[in-house]
Amino acid sequence: MPDKDFWQLALRRPIPLRRCGVILFRVHPAIPENLAQLVDSGRTEYPWVGHVSIVAKDGIEMIPTGRQ
Fold first, then answer.
1. pLDDT (tens digit, 9 = 90+) per residue, 26-39?
2. Residue 64 β-bridge partners
């Protein structure tokens, strides 16, 4: 069973992520053909570090980690 609440734990951290980020893919079915274009298009375009990023076919939502 996947660890679906891991991204929520990252958002609740009192200290923001400084050297990494969390990427949650919401693409169904999660097969290479559906994920490859999303991964390639966002490889250098987005600041993944310090964010929880939710990647879907219709776009990417980036949420900074750490309590505001």
1. 888 888 888 887 77
2. 51
